[in-house]
Design brief:
By secondary structure, the protein is an alpha+beta fold. Helix content is 19%, strand content 21%. It contains three helices and six strands; from the N terminus they run E-H-E-E-E-E-H-E-H.
């Protein structure tokens, strides 16, 4: 059984100060070809806004969410990831809430998700919509990007 961590052991931050690629290990469980920690760090650095849950004991990132935006009207949330040991404890909810506070000045904040996740996002104020997606799974890791 995986070790569980109470939410109060996490600190939330909206930047990558004191966060290096090595602290991003253990995310993307179940992805067939996940991005490397270096690629993830570059992705988060290039994001409009981020929210990170950092384990106060180990300094490792327990989860993150990112937004890309024009900074004027709209933002899109492409990724929310939580390490398995921190799931089911409110970490994802806290990350979304922390990020949405940073995006409160915008007209629209959109995301697309698997159907099974719609109840989670509905509880956070999102409404179902229609989305179209294109995936190139050969590029999932972000190598050579």
């Amino acid at each position: 059984m995986p070790e569980t961590f109470p939410l109060y052991s996490l600190r939330f931050q909206s930047d990558l100060n004191n966060i290096g690629p090595e602290q991003l290990q253990g995310l993307f469980k179940g992805w067939p070809d996940p991005p490397s920690t270096d690629t993830l760090h570059r992705t988060l650095t290039a994001s409009y806004r981020v929210s990170l849950a950092v384990d106060a004991r180990s300094g490792e990132v327990a989860g993150f969410i990112q937004a890309i935006s024009d900074g004027i009207l709209t933002a899109f949330i492409p990724l929310l990831e939580v390490r398995p040991a921190f799931r089911g404890q409110g970490t994802g909810r806290a990350l979304v809430t922390h990020l949405l506070a940073q995006l409160d000045h915008l007209y629209a904040v959109d995301l697309s998700c698997d159907e099974a996740l719609t109840p989670f996002y509905e509880r956070l104020g999102f409404t179902p919509g229609r989305a179209m997606i294109r995936r190139r799974y050969s590029r999932q890791s972000g190598r050579d990007a």
